[in-house]
Amino acid sequence: MIDQNSLKFKISNKIPVVGTMASVNMSKDDLTQLVESGNYDFVLIDGQHSPLNEDSITSFCSLSNELNIHVQFRIKHTNLAFLSGNYIDLGPSGIEIPQIELESTVTETLNNFYYPPKGIRSWGGQDRVGLSKISSRIEYSSWWENYGTLWLQLESVNAVKNCRSFAKPGVDCLSFGPADLSFSLENSPIHNFKSIEDCVQFTVNELEGTNTSVCFRNDLGTRQLYLDLGVTVLLETPKGKWGR
User: Fold this and answer.
1) pLDDT at position 141, please?
2) Tag placement on the chain: N or C end, fewer CB within 10 Å?
3) 2 lies in a domain?
4) Could you give the CA distance from residue 75 to residue 154 in angstroms, rounded to a whole number?
5) What is the distance between the alpha carbons of residues 90 and 110, in angstroms, rounded to a whole number?
6) What angle do CA 54, 239, 6 make, to 5 degrees?
7) Which residues contact residue 206 at a Cβ distance below 8 angstroms, ignoring those fewer than 6 apart?
8) Per-residue pLDDT tens listing for the chain (244 residues)
9) What is the pLDDT of residue 240?
10) Structural domain includes residue 1
């Protein structure tokens, strides 16, 4: 049964949650202060545009899991979706796949994100989140199904148009990459979207009645704008000395 205090429960029930970006090089004290600075529900580490290696991911996730902080990890490339299970074995509580374009990529990700019978993820990995508390293979696989969070990133007009087909059972969130989506809006000849916000509103409407939520990367000052559009997962620029 899904834990009602888990991030997955809140996301699937479209209860607003807020997270922020973190660096894998953070100390325990800095990570604690970062999360407390905004009362954040989760942190995200970025493998797509940052220099990360597997050892640094594992070390950071070990520290975060000790502090009971949910870690979402954006993988390096869409074409590596088949490695979803391998990335999760390093310790994150969830992953984000960038630049989703094909329904087949969604299926591949789901298969490698979940254990049988829902998927085909291989059993193994001593650094997995929660393993120290749930060692039974059957119990752990069931727990993971109700805990791990899978995000898919929309970064083109085509992806936005097809968002409903990506919201398959087991996909917790469709997240936006506003910069790359802006390139697509500017260079796609035929579409009815006048702005990023149009794309967000369209996606929120398309996902009505599903358990898949919408995430947007925003600044603190625009939180209410996106909440009003129906976004329930916000990824904000960190405040204070961590701000960028």
Assistant:
1) 96
2) C
3) no
4) 14
5) 18
6) 60
7) 163, 164, 167
8) 567 789 999 999 999 999 999 999 999 999 999 999 999 999 999 989 888 899 999 999 999 999 999 999 999 999 999 999 999 999 999 999 999 999 999 999 999 999 999 999 999 999 999 999 998 999 999 999 999 999 999 999 999 999 999 999 999 999 998 899 999 999 987 888 989 999 999 999 999 999 999 999 988 788 899 999 999 999 998 766 656 5
9) 64
10) no
Q: Measured between alpha carbons, how far is 82 from 21 in angstroms, rounded to an integer?
A: 24
> DSSP per residue over 14-68, as a string?
T--EEEEE--TT--HHHHHHHHHHHT-SEEEEESSSS---HHHHHHHHHHHHHTT
Distance CA(193)–CA(202), nearest Å, equals 9
Q: How far apart are CA 135 and CA 242, in angstroms?
A: 36
Please, what is the end-to-end C-alpha distance for the chain in angstroms? 39
Q: Domain with 18 in it: what CATH number?
A: 3.20.20.60
φ, ψ dihedrals at 132, nearest 5°: -70, -20
* 104 phi/psi in degrees, rounded to 5: -65, -30
Number of CB atoms found within 10 A of residue 80's CB: 16
Domain around 175: 7-242
Number of domains observed in the structure of the chain: 1
